[in-house]
């Protein structure tokens, strides 16, 4: 079906499933808020304060996402374009550039971002998957070279290209899920996007909780001191179980849903770990301070940028 109006069609075709998912998220946040309030009274401290800050931020983020989903495709694409803009700004703020990079950066922010999301909006799959990794990859260093600044040219170009790939190209695969034409699942792709975000973010939260409760063995202490074996295994298995239980909201069987959830969890973990390594190499704890308790926008999206393109292409080539 045409991309235009797909969100309202999705809700019209599967109203009960959509609102059951929304109700489940609200219930989880209510439970989390109650637990956070109880812990604040009984065991006050910095860990509990951080947990409650994260919960408050989750309420705000969930509300923004819901409003955009219900508002339609333009609002959803604008939201993701804004997230890409903010995430790219955070990435480049921590990876200093020079005057000779300014024209290339303008192309990233004011051409690549709107073009990428416009291609999704009109459903041009072929150019959407090629534009940044092929044309952008070749154009950006050529534009920077024209400025005549060769000091650390390869290092500077690599930073700009990798930042663009992560924050724009990879992230854009999340709303691009709504382009997929899956037999028997027409008009319901909104639920796929919801499924991806829910599993990714639940995995992050549950790994954090399991790590704080049971964490003993650090996975990569020099990269991310908070990531533990117990957190990854316990939180990952719990998020995979939730994803498997949500098979009824997807075009997958229970076993397929479990396998894809495990894949999302693994990719999200690797994304968080890789971007933590980048932060540590730059001497930073967080990418920014925009979201209370979470850090910056990219701190909240580091798992999504790795999981979204993998999930998108597995679903596209496995279910069409």
Structural description of this entry:
The chain is mostly helical and 320 residues long. It contains twelve helices and two strands. It has helices spanning 6-13, 15-42, 46-71, 73-94, 102-122, 125-146, 153-170, 173-176, 189-214, 229-245, 254-281, 297-318, and strands spanning 218-220, 224-228. The chain has a two-stranded antiparallel sheet. β1 (218-220) and β2 (224-228) form a beta hairpin. α2 packs antiparallel against α3 (46-71), α4 (73-94) runs antiparallel to α5 (102-122) and α9 crosses α11 (254-281). The chain is globular, with a radius of gyration of 20 Å. The two termini are 14 Å apart. Residues 1-7 and 9-14 have low confidence and may be disordered.
Brief characterization of the structure:
By secondary structure, the chain is mainly alpha-helical.
Number of strands: 2
- Helix coverage percent: over 70%
User: Describe the biggest sheet?
Assistant: 2 strands, antiparallel
SSE pattern, N- to C-terminal: HHHHHHHHHEEHHH
Name the beta content range.
under 5%
Average the pLDDT over all residues and give the rounded result: 84
Structural class: mainly alpha
Anisotropy-based shape: globular
Number of helices: 12
Strand order of the largest sheet: 1-2
Low-pLDDT runs of 5+ residues are 1-7, 9-14
Question: Which descriptors apply to this entry?
Answer:
320 residues; mainly alpha; two-stranded antiparallel sheet; 12 helices; globular; disordered N terminus
Helix/strand layout:
Elements: H1 6-13, H2 15-42, H3 46-71, H4 73-94, H5 102-122, H6 125-146, H7 153-170, H8 173-176, H9 189-214, E1 218-220, E2 224-228, H10 229-245, H11 254-281, H12 297-318
Antiparallel strand pairs: 1-2
Helix pairs in contact: 1-2, 2-3, 3-4, 4-5, 4-7, 5-6, 5-7, 6-7, 9-10, 9-11, 9-12, 10-11, 11-12
